[in-house]
Design brief:
3-stranded mixed β-sheet; 12 strands; alpha/beta; Rossmann fold; globular
């Protein structure tokens, strides 16, 4: 039985990984999460009583806690997802991004390296440290071209700069100390259990409540969308079969402008909401001041993981968007406490004059 440690397993992507591991494998899993504003144990309610699942409330910066946990669990792999991840929040509050994404990654690498050195030669060879990162470390694309594993880093926001630093640390611990590290850089994820500060869940919840749908600038910024279940499946492959020292780009091959995404969501809501004749959800679209330094376009070439590991996205954007809308419609008890508590849907990331 493979034993896996997941950091940040109460977050959006991490919780999907945890649910998949317990439902679809024989692995045991320990989820280490600090439970910041975006961490939600309700996302793990379906697996919390499984004997192969354990939750540890803690911070990756806490070396004594992490050292003791690794020594006790003796994992075969660590999947590092714990991160501050919202660009808008990083613009007006970068300190937590530096602390978690850089200082925290360093602390986790040191703890993992100390544990890895105690393993037998065979166990050392089989061990993996998978660092889950973002395509935003590569900067902004023009109208053509794609990010790949050889694209030079060019981060443009405090968030992406902190993740680029994290990636460099992971790579350095592999080169310098021999730790078997793998790095993944993914495109924009979407799907169930997504914290409502992000574009798609915020638009869904606002449309449900007939609130304005704020679109930055003119809505022409382009993102490559990846359904979270497809992403988690790719991460499971990488933690088992990824080659040490390698980076893998994971994308959905589903480029859309932001305004096209919001318009598609409006089209899904019109048949299920009764409104006066001729009135559509598109009337709620409101163009607002753009994000400072807003990257124009992201798009990923996933050829490497597709060729080496046989992974491909299995969920089309249209189907994934429909599934996501249906999930939020059916799961008010998950997101309403968030909207009524830690995040009320207000605009973030505008510098104070």
């Amino acid at each position: 039985m493979k034993k896996l440690v997941v950091t940040g397993g109460a977050g959006f992507i991490g919780s999907e990984v945890c649910r998949q591991v317990i439902a679809q494998t024989g692995w045991s899993l320990v989820n280490l999460d600090k439970l910041t504003y975006a961490g939600n144990l309700q996302s793990l309610a379906t697996i919390e009583s499984d004997p192969r699942y354990e939750f540890v409330h803690g911070d990756i910066c806490d070396r004594p806690l992490v050292d003791a946990m690794l020594a006790r669990i003796q994992p075969d792999a660590v999947m590092h997802l714990a991160a501050e991840s919202h660009v808008d929040r990083s613009i007006t509050g970068s300190a937590s991004f530096i602390q978690t994404n850089i200082v925290g990654t360093h602390a986790l690498l040191e703890s993992t390296l100390g544990y890895w050195k105690t393993l037998s030669t065979d166990k050392k060879d089989q061990f993996r440290f998978l660092a889950v990162s973002t395509d935003e470390v590569y900067g902004s694309l023009g109208p053509t071209g794609y990010f790949s594993e050889t694209t030079a880093f060019d981060p443009r926001s405090p968030y992406s700069a902190s993740k680029a630093a994290s990636d460099h640390l992971v790579s350095a611990w592999g080169h310098t100390y021999g730790l078997p590290v793998v790095i993944s850089n993914c495109s924009n994820n979407y799907g169930p259990y997504h914290f409502p500060e992000k574009l798609i869940p915020l638009m869904i919840i606002n449309a449900m409540n007939d609130k304005p749908l704020p679109v930055y600038g003119d809505g022409s910024n382009i993102r490559d969308w990846l359904f979270v279940q497809d992403h988690a499946r790719a991460l499971r492959l990488l933690v088992e079969h990824g080659r040490p020292g390698e980076t893998y780009c994971i994308g959905g091959r589903a480029e859309r402008t932001n305004i096209d995404v919001v318009t598609a969501l409006c089209g899904l809501f019109d048949p299920i909401r009764s409104r006066p004749a001729g009135e559509t959800a598109k009337r709620l679209i409101t163009f607002v001041q753009d994000r400072p330094g807003h990257d124009k376009r992201y798009a990923i070439d996933s050829t490497k993981i597709e060729t080496e590991l046989g992974w491909k996205p299995s969920v089309s954007f249209e189907h994934g968007l429909r599934c996501t809308v249906d999930w939020y419609l059916a799961n008010r008890t998950w997101w309403e406490p968030i909207i009524n508590g830690v995040y009320a849907g207000t605009r973030l990331g505008l510098p104070v004059a």
